[in-house]
From TrEMBL:
The keyword Transferase does not apply. Belongs to the thaumatin family. Residues 1-25 form the signal peptide. It comes from Lactuca virosa. It comes from the Eukaryota. This is Thaumatin-like protein.
Length: 252
């Protein structure tokens, strides 16, 4: 269920069908467990209203809650190393979204993503929510998704390991002090069709995992590692609220 920043929401996010099911609003709680301030970005699909006006700052240990109506789809991510002026203009080392505090698009790779499609609302064939943590566009901070109060499988999704520490040299993004602040995807780094699942590699049968996506998958088994990593990376739950934790240390 990954979202392609350059190509819009993937078919798994948007392939939902008409139904009369009704589901109450889902509540997202975004929690900053990092030891530093982050600037979460939000993006809504289908021209929906951006939660939290698209972006805001979140201090260490702080949290914020948003409600999303049935049928909502979108993503959350963390921006790091940001500087903004009094008008909200500025930029971030990772996850930047148009050089503004209130994002007007998706986060620039490499960036870890939490992605959702909330069921019901007359546009889903069931009341199931779909969610995932995606490293398809690379990694900047760990993210975990924990459903609360829902029914169904409702499994934890996320990436607890710090992939910046494990990042291969050819994928590293470093700051001015030489500190690794993000880990690029092989697609972003090498642009090849075999890494990006494009061209002659644009189907599940022709786009296999690579040594780089396998490294991501080994570190974070319940996160998307490449475009066709659906079977072990897309999760469902019904009638749930969601805790989205940045820099999680546990699945519970």
């Amino acid at each position: 269920m990954e979202v392609n920043i350059r190509g819009g929401f993937s078919l798994l996010l948007l392939a939902i069908f008409l139904s009369g099911d009704e589901v109450s609003a889902a509540v997202f709680r975004l929690q900053n467990n990092c030891s530093y301030t982050i600037w979460p970005g939000t993006l809504s699909g289908n021209d929906g209203a951006a939660l939290g006006d698209g972006g805001f700052s979140l201090s260490p240990g702080a949290s914020v809650e948003f409600s999303a109506m049935p049928g909502w789809s979108g993503r959350f991510w963390a921006r790091t190393g940001c500087t903004f002026d009094e008008f909200g203009n500025g930029n971030c080392q990772t996850g930047d979204c148009g050089s503004t505090l209130k994002c007007n698009g998706g986060g620039a790779p490499p960036v870890s993503l939490a992605e959702f499609t909330i069921g019901g609302g007359g546009i889903s064939n069931s009341d199931k929510d779909f969610y995932d943590v995606s490293l398809v566009d690379g990694y900047n901070v760990g993210i975990g998704i924990r459903p609360t109060g829902g029914a169904g499988d409702c499994l934890y999704a996320g990436c607890i390991d710090d992939l910046n520490i494990k990042c291969p040299a050819e994928l590293r993004v470093v700051d001015n002090n030489g500190v690794v602040v993000a880990c690029r995807s092989a697609c972003d780094a090498f642009k090849g069709a075999e890494f990006c699942c494009t061209g002659e590699h644009a189907t599940p049968a022709t786009c296999a995992p690579t040594q780089f996506s396998e490294m991501f998958k080994e570190a974070c088994p319940s996160a998307y590692s490449y475009a066709y990593d659906d079977a072990s990376s897309t999760f469902t739950c019904s009638g749930s609220d969601y805790l989205v934790t940045f820099c999680p240390t546990t699945r519970f």
